[in-house]
């Protein structure tokens, strides 16, 4: 055990071959020859270093070991420590955000994570995170966190009301990557149907509607088609009754566009309006 801990400290300090060493550490932990706490305590000098690059290596090792352990491995008390640690690292330095997001994405799926821990994550993220300032992969990680929350833990955050809704819509405002957009367009209807929009209904619609009609040209390398984006966008724009007053005028306005593709998109959107909005209202 001492050999393993000494090795991980040396490796993390140098920043080389962290993943393979963390594989060995996680095996020791999963087989109960080493505790996660002992592993973290061995990193104390690294995690408290005045050199942010050394601290970052420590966080990378922390998350690498964490991700190699089963989702049901930690009891709530251990998870609470991990949760607090990741929140503290999130606001330590902006360069830590990508790796901490990976840790958050994994831990929100854990069996014993509590409502309090989920809330702590978002209370940390919301005032300190500007999604569109991050790289594409890191934005995608954040959207994957949202996807899991929308599908599995939305009730935990419902009490946040417009604050959480604003976090969601501001995170996607200005997103241009098609892979991120298709993910957002697929997960938003589930969220919007099950979360109160309140006074942010129009602002929420406007953030989504800025993508209509879809401006995307496929290439041979494209894994996503324009039709997929357009169809899923239309589903977002017509997924809740609160959008009716904004969506129908938008479709009629874009119907007058000179581009044929914009006209076709507008007709398809009107079809979705007829299928999803209450004609009496």
Explain this structure to me?
- The chain is an all-alpha fold and 281 residues long.
- The protein has a domain at 1-69.
- It is 68% helix and 0% strand.
- The protein has helices at 2-14, 18-30, 36-42, 44-47, 52-67, 76-90, 97-107, 115-128, 136-157, 162-172, 178-193, 201-209, 226-237, 244-254, 260-276.
- Helix 11 runs parallel beside helix 13 and helix 13 runs parallel beside helix 15 (260-276).
- The relative contact order is 0.06.
- This is MMS19 nucleotide excision repair protein.
SS content category: mainly alpha
Label the overall shape: elongated
Number of helices: 15
What portion of the residues fall into strands of 2 or more residues? under 5%
* Unreliable stretches: none
Q: Residue-averaged pLDDT, rounded?
A: 94
Q: Compute the gyration radius: what is it?
A: 22 Å
The oligomerization state is: single chain
List the helices and strands and how they pair.
Layout: H1 2-14, H2 18-30, H3 36-42, H4 44-47, H5 52-67, H6 76-90, H7 97-107, H8 115-128, H9 136-157, H10 162-172, H11 178-193, H12 201-209, H13 226-237, H14 244-254, H15 260-276
């Amino acid at each position: 055990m001492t050999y393993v801990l000494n090795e991980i400290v040396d490796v993390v300090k140098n920043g080389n071959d962290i993943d393979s060493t963390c594989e060995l550490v996680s095996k020791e932990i999963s087989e109960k020859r080493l505790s996660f706490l002992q592993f973290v305590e061995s990193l104390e000098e690294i995690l408290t270093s005045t050199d942010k690059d050394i601290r970052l290596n420590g966080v990378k090792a922390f998350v690498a070991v964490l991700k190699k352990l089963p989702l049901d491995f930690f009891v709530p008390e251990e998870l609470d420590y991990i949760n607090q640690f990741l929140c503290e690292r999130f606001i330590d330095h902006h360069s830590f955000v990508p790796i901490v997001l990976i840790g958050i994405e994994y831990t929100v799926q854990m069996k014993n994570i509590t409502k309090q821990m989920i809330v702590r994550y978002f209370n940390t993220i919301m005032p300190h995170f500007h999604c569109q300032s991050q790289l594409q992969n890191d934005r995608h990680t954040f959207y994957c966190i949202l996807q899991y929350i929308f599908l599995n833990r939305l009730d935990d955050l419902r009490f946040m009301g417009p604050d959480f809704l604003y976090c969601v819509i501001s995170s996607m405002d200005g997103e241009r990557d098609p892979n991120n957009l298709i993910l957002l367009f697929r997960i938003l209807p589930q969220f919007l149907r099950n979360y109160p929009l309140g006074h942010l209904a129009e602002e929420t619609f406007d953030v989504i509607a800025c993508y209509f009609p879809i401006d995307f040209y496929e290439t041979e390398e494209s894994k996503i088609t324009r039709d997929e984006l357009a169809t899923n966008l239309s589903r977002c724009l017509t997924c809740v009754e609160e959008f009716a007053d904004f969506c129908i005028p938008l479709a009629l306005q874009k119907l007058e566009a000179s581009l044929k593709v914009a006209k076709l998109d507008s007709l398809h959107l009107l079809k979705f309006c007829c299928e999803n909005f209450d004609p009496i209202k």
